[in-house]
Amino acid sequence: MIPFTKAHACGNDFLIVTEDAAGSHDWATLTRRLCARNTGVGADGIEFFAWTGPASGRIRLHNADGSIAEISGNGTRCVAAWMAASLHSQPGDSLTIETDAGLRICRVNAVSTAGEYSVQITTGMGIPTFAAKTVTLADGTAITGSSISTGNPHFVIVVDNPEFTVAGRSWQTIGAEICVHPDFPNQTNVEFLRVLSPTEIEIRIYERGVGPTTSSGTGSSASATAAISLGLVQSPLTVLAPGGPQTVSWSGPGTELELTGPASLIARGEAW
Fold first, then answer.
1. Number of other CB atoms surrounding residue 82 within 10 Å
2. pLDDT tens for residues 117-155?
């Protein structure tokens, strides 16, 4: 039996499995089996975890399809919530998590034990990069956007309609094609952003290895990076996804971006 904890951050859900519990299982195969929505536990991915110190750990993320991702902002925050519960952390405590995109420091802002265990956490997301880019689709349509790295790759498209359509096509269709476009040999996450006010944007997310998702921490960070870099909004910025809002603070190129949002533990169990 494999013990697991299920957590979510704005509806973006993950299983947390220790490396010891995973044992000799092939992690990609195990992830596909446990993340299956109808025949498994169901999740967007598994964070495989190992303690490295009293308040520090290492994670390796596998997406629901078994592929390895450098980092998930929401997944990292879910792991931080799990660590906080294990350590009985209090507001002001910091947790250090090593990811494939580098170290991330998670600061606990608030803890709630009423009902499900929930925390509010600010995570240092590293220094994002920004570059304008145009992607040409199979039918010849040119899509202008921003190529962003927040430790993992993103292509962000600004839209001007509440349906998030692009060139007369749904965002899901456009996202699926751009995700696997030859311009991105390792595939890419795709975000669609609409400006609501100088301090608020709304997004939709097509996540590499998962598909449409309710939320993404790195996607929120990438969308904010694009919107601020293009001069459309200002920091701090509320990023509203279907799963709920997150807050991004960023002072511009060369500085670290900070992401604030919730994470909750919702179940513990064992799987075959």
1. 25
2. 999 999 999 999 999 999 999 999 999 999 999 999 999
Longest dimension (CA), the chain: 55
pLDDT tens digits, 184-205: 999 999 999 999 999 999 999 9
Specify the CATH architecture of the domain 2-125+261-271: Roll (3.10)
d(CA 141, CA 235): 33
Q: Which residue has the tokens 């998962």?
A: 210
pTM given for the model:
0.93
Nearest-CA neighbor of 223 among 170, 159, 165, 140? 159
Residue ranges covered by each domain of the chain: 2-125+261-271, 129-255
Assign domain 129-255 to a CATH class: alpha beta
**Is the pLDDT assigned to residue 115 strictly greater than 90?**
no
Question: Helix 73-87 vs helix 217-229: angle between axes, to the nearest 10 degrees?
Answer: 130
**Number of C-beta neighbours around residue 112 at 10 A:** 12
Rg (CA), the chain: 18
